[in-house]
Amino acid sequence: MALFFPHLPTDRIARRYWGASWRSTGRPDHPPLVCTGRMKNAMRLTAVDEIGVAIGLKPGQGLAEARAICPALDAVIADEAAERRFLEGIADWCDRYTPLVAIEGGDGLFLDITGCSHLLGGEELLLGDILKRLFEMGLDARGAISSTPGLSWAMARFGGNGTVAERHTKSVPASFPVAACRLPEETVLALRKTGLKRVGDLLAAPRAPLARRFGPLPLLRLDQMLGREDEPISPRRPVADLSVERCLAEPLQCEEAILQLVQRMAVTLKTELEARCQGGRRFELLLFRVDGRVFRIGVGSSVPLRDPTGISCLFSERLVALHDDLDTGYGFEIMRLNVLQAETLHRLQSDFVGGAPVETALATFVDQAVARFGPDCLVRPVLQESHVPERASLLPSVTDLMGIVSPPDVGQKEAGTGWPVRARRPIRLLKVPEIIEAAAEAPEGPPMSFRWRRCLHRVRRAEGPEKLAMEWWIDGEEAPARNYFQVEDDEGHRYWLFREGAYVSNAEMPRWFMHGVFA
User: Fold this and answer.
1) Cα gap 482→485, rounded to integer Å
2) Rounded CA separation 269/263 (Å)
3) CA 283 to CA 39: how far, in whole Å?
């Protein structure tokens, strides 16, 4: 299925002016609504509503010319980012019909409805339901269903709303203009100059001369439209491994009722996960509000999980954190629970008194903390085999490490494979070394004084240098080496500095950096 929104920018503004149901209640007495932007060093129309099209306005027209036609014109500056968010919101709403939704350009959507149309009684009823709901949401939408994305795209823009039977795939597009093949504008103009104005003209033309003159793209688009070449669509979101959905007769507004339904849906998921000997690591709850807005709430587990109570507790903690941001409005009419990532779940034996293992209790605490405070609230330092200070350790989230075996201790590693031997390191290491002004004895002397963050420090004691060469496979062979010094100023503060490069005649002066603080 292809959906086309010919007046998407102006519909977005009209919904803001007159409400989401303005098409159902009737348009107020208002001048034509247009969006403007700078094109070719002039202010031009980028979008025009139906009233403007009726009086002769069109995209690309100059704003001054448009005001000459209609002085009372309501011109609004185009906001491409807002229009993109609006289209993504419509794509989220379309997830109620199929999880395979892709954005096509800036004014269209592709929906792969394979195996979905029977849920609403067939393709025609499915298309009618979507267009009716979109109209009630204040959108001018056109849609078509066929066996190929290219033909559906062409039908929605140049044909009309409806479905195309597979036996009519070759005959229907013959009357469409060549622009229906989704070709660049310059290619369309070149085809028209040679007399090829319709898709039927392309079908009747010899393929070899056509490819030599206009390239392979026209023939590829033509074959995709007719089903001779496959054209997969790329969904904007990954498809869930498992999914459970509930369509509600009465919209839900209470968080307690939402969590109860989540637990019941998790019971259904548990059966499927047990059959696969798996547990979920990432879950997603989709809440489809009555007015069309969709909320996506994601949680993660540090270990594979399929216990319904545990899944419900994770979403309970998440809803507490999102309490002010979750606007229930008039309630949610559809709820869907997805398993985005699943892993093999090994059974754990309880102790003799029936208690859970310590690892399970720790995983439960980590999951609840991460669900409420975010994935970066708990981190753990992990050593890396690198002598460059800023690469010697990482701070990944604990949830990413719960199922990973910790690296062995230095004493347990074989000879020659231990962690690099390092001198004493500062208590606080700056994430990015900060450049300083320093005065030092050439060629290898420590700094005698330095200025850092507008403060002058005189060095009382110094130790070094500790020379570290950069990693040529990352920084390149020309990366200068670093010479580190531990210094103490007159007030007893201790710092970790390094000189990048060396004092060499006829060369640029080396730079000094502050990299850490000892105390």
Assistant:
1) 10
2) 10
3) 45
pTM of the entire predicted model: 0.72
Say how far apart CA 285 and CA 299 lie, in whole Å. 9
Peptide bond into 389 cis (omega under 30): no
Collect all residues with Cβ–Cβ distance below 8 Å to 451 and sequence separation of at least 6.
436, 437, 438, 457
Closest CA to 401 of 368, 379, 370: 379
First to last CA, the chain: 65
Write the CB contacts of 466 (distance below 8 Å, at least 6 apart in sequence).
Answer: 423, 483, 484, 485
Give 218-221's long-range contacts (Cβ < 8 A, gap of 24+): 218/178, 218/181, 218/183, 218/187, 218/191, 221/150, 221/181, 221/182, 221/183
pLDDT number for residue 165: 86
Report the mean per-residue pLDDT for the chain: 87
Helix boundaries (H) for 282-427: 308-321, 358-373
User: Residue 75 in contact with residue 81, Cβ under 8 Å?
Assistant: no
Rounded Cα gap, residues 482 and 515, in angstroms = 11
Q: How far apart are CA 154 and CA 509, in angstroms?
A: 64
pLDDT of residue 140: 94
- Per residue in 421-464, pLDDT tens? 567 888 898 989 999 999 998 888 899 999 999 999 999 999 98
Give the three-state DSSP class for 39: strand
Greater pLDDT, 345 or 13: 13
Residue of 380, 381, 383, 379 whose CA lies nearest to 409: 383
Residue 263's pLDDT is what? 93
- In whole angstroms, give the CA distance from residue 7 to residue 228: 32
CA distances from 357 to 312, 332, 348, 362, 364 (A): 21, 38, 8, 9, 11
SS3 325: coil
Q: Which pLDDT tens digit goes with each residue over 100-147?
A: 999 998 999 999 998 888 888 889 999 999 999 999 999 999 999 999
Q: Which two tokens stand for residue 317?
A: 């903690």
For the chain, count helices (H), then strands (E). 15, 20
- Beta bridge partner(s), residue 34: 48, 75
CB 57 within 8 A of CB 66: yes
Phi–psi pair at 254, nearest 5 degrees: -85, 135
The DSSP 8-state label assigned to residue 397 in this structure reads: B
- How far, in whole angstroms, is CA 129 from its chain's centroid? 28
Give the model's pLDDT for residue 387.
86
Closest CA relative to residue 145, chosen from 129, 126, 132, 158: 126
Q: What gap in Å lies between CA 457 and CA 300, rounded to an integer? A: 48
For residues 151 and 229, what is the distance between their CA atoms, to the nearest angstrom? 12
Tell me 157's DSSP state.
I
